[in-house]
Automatic annotation (TrEMBL):
Gene Ontology cellular component annotations, sorted alphabetically: cytoplasm
Protein name: Nucleoside-diphosphate-sugar epimerase
NAD-dependent epimerase/dehydratase domain span: 3-215
Molecular-function annotations in GO: aldehyde dehydrogenase (NAD+) activity
């Protein structure tokens, strides 16, 4: 299968590209810079120059592909306005690619987050949130899944709070960055809220399986660790960096503070049983031991 991918040079995307190429697919990857294009070529894929806001380029990529995997996101969390802008840009890109796929019966795998359900771990049947700081992402994903009624084999891989590799990535990576800047490995409140996690290489396998197998209109959970407490995560980070570990004010975490403070465990039982997904790489707490002081 020839696969068009956005976000193919990020921590997750790099793993997905390698997974696809390793299983006989060819890859056309969106590349927003010369450096990204070189990275795509070095990985064995073909670059398509352009960014997430270049909707005509996205449509051209879709036209050249047998299937689409969407991973790109602005990742600017510096302010509420920056987050809103990234969410809006991603939503427009997802809609444009979806419209280009209507009636083709081709697979379209998009990315989402695991939802929050009060009092229990969320599963694949729970709806994603459509309000709050990143509610627009949920609305965009629901739009992609709705394309199942219009001849698109759309599916969503829901990623947990942290997708990690060699101690980097996800919300745990943001905690590490804050600890480096402030000299304190902090957590919100009592730190007992739980964050699910998955290794990037395991997540990559699930994206491939969804592309190859997922029925139209379905959602899947890329969850290995169902929920480590933020205090436990911060404790490993603090030990690795040699800085104190303690509760810090919510505003330390900027516009993502409400999300950081939410207990959000998640399960992946259905994903494992129906798609045959079996994570095999290190857990988050073990992988954080790779953080360098």
């Amino acid at each position: 299968m020839r696969v068009f991918i956005t976000g193919g040079t990020g921590l997750i995307g790099t793993a997905v590209v390698a997974e696809l190429l390793g299983h006989g697919h060819t890859v056309l990857a969106l590349a927003r810079s010369d450096a990204s294009a070189r990275a795509v070529e070095a990985a064995g894929a073909e670059p398509l120059p352009g960014g997430l806001t270049d909707l005509d380029v996205l449509r051209a990529g879709v036209a050249r592909a047998d299937g689409v995997v969407h991973l790109a996101f602005g990742n600017d969390f510096s302010s509420a306005e920056a987050v809103a802008r990234s969410v809006a840009e991603e939503g427009a890109a997802q809609a444009a690619m979806g419209e280009a796929l209507v009636g083709s019966d081709r697979p379209y795998v998009t990315v989402s987050g695991t939802p929050w359900v009060p009092g229990r771990a969320s599963d694949e049947t729970d709806p994603v949130p459509t309000d709050g700081p990143v509610g627009g992402r949920g609305r965009a994903v629901m739009g992609v899944l709705a394309l199942a009624s219009r001849g698109v084999r759309s599916s969503a891989v829901r990623l947990p709070r942290t997708v990690h590799n060699e101690g980097q990535g996800g919300f745990a990576g943001l905690l590490t960055g804050i600890a480096r800047r402030t000299g304190v490995s902090g957590y919100p409140g009592d730190g007992l809220m739980r964050w699910p996690a998955v290794h990037a290489l395991d997540a990559a396998v699930l994206f491939r399986l969804a592309l190859e197998q997922a029925p139209a209109g379905t959602a899947w959970h890329a969850v290995d660790d169902e929920g480590d407490t933020v205090r436990d995560i911060a404790t490993v980070i603090g030990r690795r960096l040699g800085v104190p570990v303690r509760s810090v004010p919510d505003d330390t975490f900027g516009p993502l503070a409400p999300i950081f403070a939410t207990d959000q465990p998640a399960t992946s039982s259905r994903t494992r049983s129906e798609l045959g997904w079996l994570p095999s790489h290190p857990s988050l707490l073990k992988d954080l031991e790779n953080i360098r002081p």
